[in-house]
Write a structure and sequence with these properties.
The chain contains 13 helices and 12 strands. The chain has 387 residues and is an alpha+beta fold. It folds into 2 domains: 228 residues, Beta Polymerase, domain 2, CATH 3.30.460.90; 117 residues, Orthogonal Bundle (Poly(a)-polymerase, middle domain), CATH 1.10.1410.40. The strands form 2 sheets. Strands 1, 2, 3, 4, 5, 8, 9, 10, 11 and 12 form a 10-stranded mixed β-sheet that branches. A two-stranded antiparallel sheet has the order 6-7. β6 and β7 form a beta hairpin. About 3% of the residues have low confidence.
Length: 387
């Protein structure tokens, strides 16, 4: 579907790229849509340093507890990939906070059979495990399995099962409440509190913060709790991407970490001043108000980045690549089919680590709703053509 011709005649292409009218149009696009967003990188570093300091405080506070172990944050989403479609003041820096089980506990991922969500969902069963044996048994901790309830109650803090779980399952809402309470109490202990005032914003399953400088400039940060699937780049996320909220013990499969890793690899391998991020930002602005989601656009660009040689993404080719993106999207709308990037993709970069069943899986169709609703396809094509 949607074949892309990347073998254009080089002489013709060179003459097109040197056309002053094309270069002038690129300049107009860059100014009109503010395609350069260099502050994303510097502000992302500020956010990552802040969260690193916060997690350091959490480790000192909770080292003797049985709360989840908070791993180093991972930047995800468009702002951390370098191309946010939003205006500077509306950018949200999203960070995954991976959770590991505390001593004496283990996480087991179980398929969620409630069937309430269209995407893959799981529950994280928390199990108490023996700490008496092992390579380095911790003599200072009592074993949940082999010490009496009286001893445990008298000498040891409460198990994770009795704090942040509902039944035997890890509860995303309880974790978010616990972490938000911690952030409020620990804020004065981090160096950034001298430069920013902080407000925790309402959120059920994540921790959202607004950081404000004396100048009035704000930074918006969202921390989403996650659990890694094995050693892969696929995580379970506490925060649903859409408007529908499943039960608080349901965690949704997320590809955000794999996507961020993909864009980091492209940045390393692409030529200097590659235009792929500007293409994303420009097309996102062009598609505003249409029925095509930003995620469908990003999926399209990821496919094209594996189909068109990275040498063909130099800045002078910006208009050609925008044409390719829009043509690919138009073709997918006509075919009512846009393949998910991480399922059954033979062009998957080797650096991306996926669970074994992903390669064998049938590609998911992000435009499946158009198959089921012909009127929606007609409307989407009409809106697209009007662009």
């Amino acid at each position: 579907i949607c074949e892309v011709d990347s073998s254009r005649d080089s002489e013709t292409e060179e003459s097109e790229e040197e056309n002053p009218a094309d270069m002038n149009m690129i300049w107009i696009f860059s100014r009109r849509f503010q395609l350069s967003v260099p502050k994303l990188t510097s502000r992302r570093r500020v956010v990552q340093e802040l969260l690193s300091d916060l997690l350091q405080v959490s480790h000192s506070l909770f080292s003797d507890s049985f709360f989840p172990v908070l791993e180093p944050v991972i930047g995800v989403g468009s702002a951390c990939e370098g191309w946010s479609p939003h205006k500077e003041e509306d950018v949200i820096y999203c960070m995954f906070v991976p959770l590991k089980p505390p001593p004496g506990h283990a996480f087991h991922l179980e398929p969620d059979t409630t069937g309430q969500m269209p995407q893959t969902s799981m529950r994280i069963r928390v199990e108490q495990v023996c700490t008496c044996t092992g390579k380095q048994p911790d003599q200072s901790r009592l074993c949940f399995l082999h010490h009496s309830a009286e001893e445990l109650k008298r000498n040891q803090v409460t198990s994770l099962l009795h704090t942040l779980c509902t039944g035997p399952y890890l509860d995303g809402e309880k974790i978010a409440l616990w972490f938000r309470t911690f952030v409020i109490s620990a804020w004065s202990a981090v160096p950034q509190s001298r430069h920013y005032s902080m407000k925790v914003l309402p959120s059920c399953r994540s921790c959202k913060m607004r950081l404000m400088k004396d100048s009035g400039r704000s930074l918006f940060v969202e921390m989403v709790f996650s659990v890694q699937q094995g050693d892969s780049d696929i995580f379970l996320s506490s925060q649903p991407a859409g408007a529908q909220f499943p039960p608080s013990t349901t965690w949704l499969e997320s590809y955000a970490v794999a996507e961020a890793k993909f864009f980091r690899q492209v940045a390393v391998q692409a030529p200097p001043h590659s235009c792929h991020l500007k293409c994303l930002r420009l097309c996102a602005r062009l598609l505003e108000g249409s029925g095509i989601s930003v995620y469908a656009l990003k999926t399209t660009v990821m496919h094209l980045l594996t189909l068109i040689p990275l040498s063909e993404w130099q800045h002078k080719y910006l208009l050609m690549r925008v044409d390719d993106i829009m043509d690919y999207l138009r073709c997918c709308l006509e075919e009512k089919r846009l393949k998910h990037f991480f399922f059954g993709n033979e062009d998957m970069p080797e650096e991306i680590s996926l669970p074994p069943d992903f390669q064998e899986a049938q590609p998911l169709n992000l435009f499946q709703h158009l198959v089921q609703d012909p009127a929606a396809q007609t409307k989407a094509l009409k809106e697209f053509d009007e662009l």
